[in-house]
Amino acid sequence: VSLLLAFFSAEAVLHTSDIKAKKKLREKYGSRELFFDYDKNLIYRGIPNKGRNNSHGYWDHEYNYTKNPGVYRIVVIGDSVANGQGVELEQGFSKLLEKGLNASTKSRDFEVIKLTQTGYSTSQELWLLKHEAFRYNPDVIVWSYCLNDPADPVIHDVNGELGRYFYAPSVHFFDLIRKKYFAFIERK
Predict the structure, then answer these.
(1) Do 58 and 99 touch, CB atoms closer than 8 A?
(2) For the chain, what percent of residues have pLDDT higher than 90?
């Protein structure tokens, strides 16, 4: 009984702490509109048709899953670098690649589709590869890899606080143990 009481007390404290931390993040960013929402598999993902996002939640042109005959399709997976953060859509490397390939030949059309999100890590990109990339029937998949990609999307906070904001552990106590264990192993 004492152990159960201690567990539930710790869970209540950790849950309250998480609520306060997320409230501080909301206050920090004020009325700035978010174009992301919680996702149980990816922690967060782009909201379809909001801001610059297409109907699939990515900052890209609209592409159907079905590929037209004669089209050579390249799917790009990655983080903010692949997403082209800081430049206009047409100036990102995926759209420059598409434009260059289409200018180089008239025998086929090329489509370069971005499945990229700012702050995504390898675990999130792997999920995109397994569950979304092949829906577009790609001929080639390009995985844009950056040195911080192996980082944990929540523990290392490589995604500009998006991971911490949207991360919702089902049991905070077990999540704390996971984070402490992760930190211990990382130090070793």
Answers:
(1) no
(2) 54
